[in-house]
From TrEMBL, chain A:
Stretches assigned to the 4Fe-4S ferredoxin-type domain: 315-384
Region (Disordered): 441-499
Residue span, Lactate utilization protein B C-terminal domain: 393-484
Record protein name field: Iron-sulfur cluster-binding protein
Record field: compositional bias (Polar residues): 482-491
Pfam families named in the record: Fer4_8, LUD_dom, LutB_C
Residue stretches making up the LUD domain: 73-286
Lineage: Bacteria, Bacillati, Actinomycetota, Actinomycetes, Kitasatosporales
UniProt KW keywords: 4Fe-4S, Electron transport, Iron, Iron-sulfur, Metal-binding, Repeat, Transport
InterPro entries recorded: 4Fe4S_Fe-S-bd, 4Fe4S_Fe_S_CS, FTHF_cligase-like_sf, Helical_ferredxn, LUD_dom, LutB/LldF, LutB_C, NagB/RpiA_transferase-like
Automatic annotation (TrEMBL), chain B:
Taxonomy of the source species: Bacteria, Bacillati, Actinomycetota, Actinomycetes, Kitasatosporales
Transmembrane portions of the chain: none
InterPro entries membership: Cys_rich_dom (IPR004017)
Species assigned in the record: Streptomyces asoensis
Cysteine-rich domain: residues covered: 3-83, 138-222
Stated name of the protein: Fe-S oxidoreductase
Amino acid sequence: MSGTFVGMPAFPEAAREAVGDRTLRANLRHATHTIRAKRAAAVAEVSDWAQLREAGKRIKDHTLRRLDHYLVQLEEAVTAAGGTVHWAADADEANRIVAALVKETGESDLVKVKSMATQEIGLNEALEAEGIRAYETDLAELIVQLGRDRPSHILVPAIHRNRGEIRDIFAREMSAWGRPAPEGLTDTPAELAEAARLHLREKFLRAKVGISGANFMVAETGTLVVVESEGNGRMCLTLPETLISVVGIEKIVPTWRDLEVFLQTLPRSSTAERMNPYTSTWTGTTDGDGPRTFHLVLLDNGRTDTLADEVGRQALRCIRCSACLNVCPVYERAGGHAYGSVYPGPIGAILSPQLRGTGSEIDASLPYASSLCGACYEVCPVAIDIPEVLVHLRERVVQGGPVTREGNKVVVKPAKGHAAERAAMRAARWAFGRPGALRAGQRLASRTRGLHPRTLPGPGRAWSASRDLPAVPAEPFRDWWQRTNGGTADGTSGEGAAK
Amino acid sequence: MRVALFLTCVNDTLYPDTGRAVVKLLTRLGVEVDFPMAQTCCGQAHYNTGYRHEAEPLARHFSDVFAEYEAIVTPSGSCGAMVRELYPRMGERARAEGRGDTLAATLAPVVPKTYELTEFLVDVLRVTDVGAYYPHKVTYHPTCHGLRGLGLGDRPRRLLRAVAGLELVELPGADECCGFGGTFALKNSDVSAAMGADKVRNAESTGAEVLCAADNSCLMHIGGTMTRLESGMRPVHIAEILASTKEGPAS
Ligand code: SF4
C-alpha cells in the first residue's frame, strides 16, 4: 500500500501517542459520536433494514464467487462503450499504467476525486516522481493534502482535524498549490467551504485529465458509479478530456438493479443520509459530452489472494461506508493513523493484513487492535463478521499456516514475539485439561494471598499501570463446594460460608 | 430441575462469592444445582487470542463434563457466548480443514443447553422477580458478549427492576465496550485503559453506588480502574444482587 505507511510501528505503540493527545481524542470523540447517533436514526427509519443487509451480503458473496466471470463481462461492456480496460496485478503495475496514460496526454497537472484505491497504491507519490502533480478535490482530501498529512478515516479523511486547524492549513498552504485563501479567513464552516470552492474551481476549469475511483462497477452495462456529498467528484468526472478510473476488482456488482440495495444502505451507513446528494454514473465515452477518452484500471493488489481464504474473504464485501470506524471504541481512542493504512478502524484491521500479509510489525499487530466487542459487525451493512476474521488472522499470526500469495499456496511462519505467550497458553491448556492441576494452582494462590502485589512486574505491568488487580480469595469456589457439600453442610445454601 | 453450574475458571479462582450467590439464588428458586468438579475452562482466552488448536481440547473436556446435564448455567456472558456461538464454529472449522465431523459432534450436545444466568432465569424458569432485596442505587453495564454475542437484551434490566429496594439508573454509553477484551487489556493496554476510564466516568455520572454486570472479567477491569481512579463506586456481579435478601444481604 501507500509508501507513506511503510515502516510503521506496531499498533499499540502507534496508538499510545493518540491516546495521550487530548485534542485529537476530543475531535474524534465528537465526530464519531455525532455520526453514530445520526446513523442509528437513519437506519431505524427503514423497516426492511435487516433484509437489505442480507441482500447486500448475498449480492456481494455471489459476485465474489464468480468474480472472474463478472470481470470479463465488465471488460466487454466497457470496451463496447468506447473505454479501455487495463489490468493491474499490484500497486507498481497500476502506478506505471496510470503514469503512462497521463504522459500520453502531455499534461503534468490533473484533478482527482477521492479514491481509496489510488491511496492504497500511493499513486500521488508515484506520479510526483514522474513530474506529475495530482490535486485532490474532495474537501477532506484537500485538507489532508495541503496539511502534508495522511488520511485517518475512510469517509472523512480529515476527521482528526478541527475547524481551527483547517483554517490554519488553508491560510498557510493554499497559495503554494494555486489560488490563495482569502484574507482574514475565519474558521466558520461557510467561509472555509467558500475558500475551498474558489481554490478548487480554478483547478476544475483548467484540468485536462481527471482521476477517479468508483464505489461500484456494473458488469452488465460497464457503468461506473460514484456517490458523494459535494459535487466535486462530478466535476472531475465530466470536465476533463481524459478520465482514468482506478478501481479494486471487488467493487463489481452484476446488474444495474443490484444498485438498488447499496444506494440505500451505503448513504445511511456512512453519512446517515437517506440518499447521498450526488450519484454519478458513467459508461465509456459519449460524443459531445464528458471525457473524450476513458480508461479503467482494474486493481488486484492482494484481492485475489484474499479471495482464496474462506474465512477472510468476506472482507471483500466491504462497501467502504465507514460505519464500523464510527462505532469502534478502539478507533475512537487510537485514531486512524495508528492503523498504518488508508483503511483504518475495524475493516482496516482485517483488510490490511490480508492485502499486505502479516509479515510486518504493524500488520501482525492489527488483528489484535480490537477488544472483539462486536459493535462493528452489528453495524456493517454487508454483515462482515469482523470479529470472526480478526480471530482467524490472530491464528495466522501466532501459529502461521497456509495462505495464498500472488496466486501460490505458501505456508507462513508465526510472527515474531509470540513465543512466551504460546508457552503460557500451552501451560494453561495443560492445567485446564487436568482439574487436579488447576486446583493445586488455585490453592497455592490462596495460601500465598497475603504476598500478592496489586501491581505487577514484567508483562503484567501493562495491566497494573492503570488498574488494580483483584485480591485472591481465601478459598476457591471448588474447595468451598466440597467442604460444605454444595453449601448444604452448614445448613444454608452457601450464604456466609467461607468468608 | 437439576442443572450444572459452569462457574468458569476466573470465577472459581478469583470470585467464589459469585458462585455461592448463584447456588443460593437457584436453590431458592427450587433448582437443584450440581457443580461438576472436573470442570475447568471453556477455552475462550485461547480461542480469542488465536490459539484455536489449544482451545479444542478444552472444548472437548467441557463437553465431556457437561453433556449429561439437562441444562448448564453460567454467570458469564462471554463464556456463555463461547459455548453457544463459537463451539459450533470450531466444529465447522475442523470440518473445513478435512478433519471430519468428530469435533462438531462432540460439542453439539452442550451448545443448546448452555445458558447465561439471566437468560436461564427469564427464559427457562420464566421469572423476573426472584425475591431479592438490595437497597442500593445501581447502574447496569451490558457486557459486549452478553449484549451482542448472546443477545441478552433487557433481561438483566428486567430482573434488576424487580429487585426490592433497588434503584436502577441508566448508564450513559452503556453499549460501549469497557475495554477489557481478554488479552486485549494486556496487548493494547493504553487504549484499553482509556476505554476503562471513560466507562468509569460515565458510571460515576449516574450517581450510583454500584456498577453491576453479568461478567466478572469485565468487572475486574472496571473495578480495577475504579480503585485506581479512587472512584467511590463498587463493581458487583448481578448474581450477587439477585441472591441478596433482607435476611441474607450480599457481602
Ligand atoms: S466493513 Fe462494513 S461497516 Fe466497515 S466500512 Fe466496510 S461495509 Fe462499512
